Every structure is written in C-alpha cells, then in structure tokens.
C-alpha cells in the first residue's frame, strides 16, 4: 500500500490537471433506517465483526486501537481494548496507551488501519459489495474536526470537490480506496 500522503498529493495533481472527480463523503457510523448498507459502513466506528491476528474485532476502530497498544507493547491496554465494544470508549482507551510515540505511530498507523479494513471488508460480503460498488469515487471522511484521518471539512462544505483546499489529508479515505482496489483484484 502506498503512503496516503502521496495519494493525497496525486489527487491534488489530478484536480489541477482538470480531472473530473466524484466524491463520496462519509462520517456517521449509524446504520440507515432502511437497513441497507451505505456510506456509514466506511466509518471506522461502524459495528461489524471480523477476525484478524487471532482475535475477534467489533469495528475497525477497535482493531486500530488494539494495534496501537500492541505497537507500543502495552499488553494491559490491548486486553482492555479487546474487551470493549463502544467505539467512543475504545478511542478513549487508545489515547491512554502507555509508551506512545507520535512519530512511530505516524509511521505505522496507516498499515494497521489498512489491515483492519481489509479484514473488515474482506470478511463481510455486504460491506465488500458496497465498497466495490463505489467504483472510482473518491472516498472522503468528511469530518470537520479530523485533519489527519479526515479531510477536515464537512460533507456540505463547498471545498469537498477541491482536494487542494482541504485542511486535512483524508488518510482514511485513501486507505479505503486502497482496500477497494485490493478487493477488486480478487474479483
């Protein structure tokens, strides 16, 4: 998988060259009232079960925070995270990982999130089908407060279709597009 920052720069070059970009914003993990799978499943907080690294996970967020704890050899936090199911609580637990090093996390986190989502979408057929149905759309985590994993803007922001104007780098969106490409290869 390429570095999401490089993917962001490549997208900005496509925009500058006048390419037609079709965005698919997502944020909320709440399932739709219709029960149909939609953009909500792209969220790290979306509840679905998958297995990886000899454990069962309830969300990609849980895998990410467990991966954070194991990266920094915090076995206690890793166990507590595995026992939790509420994504908000899991995120809070992840913030308390002992021995955390921001530079190291920046280096390894995109690989962890990639593996989480490859397992999530690879093991859940309905989610996989939805992700593949997004085809070549640009997946954008439309979080106005997240400038690392998200684009730093809301879905309603007029800058949504202009990646060069995003305050954030949309790492999660680029990782999901890499997962989509990998799953499409095996079709």
Automatic annotation (TrEMBL):
<feature type="domain" description="NADAR">
    <location>
        <begin position="40"/>
        <end position="183"/>
    </location>
</feature>
<protein>
    <submittedName>
        <fullName>NADAR family protein</fullName>
    </submittedName>
</protein>
<dbReference type="InterPro" id="IPR012816">
    <property type="entry name" value="NADAR"/>
</dbReference>
<dbReference type="Pfam" id="PF08719">
    <property type="entry name" value="NADAR"/>
</dbReference>
<dbReference type="InterPro" id="IPR037238">
    <property type="entry name" value="YbiA-like_sf"/>
</dbReference>
């Amino acid at each position: 998988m390429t570095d999401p920052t490089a993917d962001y720069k490549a997208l900005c070059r496509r925009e500058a060259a006048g390419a037609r970009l079709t965005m698919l914003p997502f944020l909320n993990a709440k399932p739709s009232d219709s029960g149909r799978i939609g953009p909500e499943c792209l969220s790290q907080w979306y509840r679905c079960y998958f297995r990886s690294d000899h454990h069962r996970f309830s969300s990609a967020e849980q895998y990410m925070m467990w991966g954070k704890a194991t990266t920094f050899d915090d076995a206690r936090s890793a166990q507590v995270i595995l026992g939790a199911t509420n994504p908000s609580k899991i995120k809070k637990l992840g913030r308390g990982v002992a021995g955390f090093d921001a530079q190291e996390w920046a280096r390894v986190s995109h690989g962890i999130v990639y593996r989480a989502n490859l397992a999530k979408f690879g093991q859940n057929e309905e989610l996989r089908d939805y992700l593949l149905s997004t085809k070549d759309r640009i997946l954008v985590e439309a979080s106005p407060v997240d400038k690392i994993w998200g684009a730093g803007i809301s879905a309603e922001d007029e800058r949504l279709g202009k990646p060069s104007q995003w305050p954030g780098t949309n790492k999660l969106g680029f990782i999901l597009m890499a997962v989509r490409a990998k799953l499409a290869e095996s079709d």
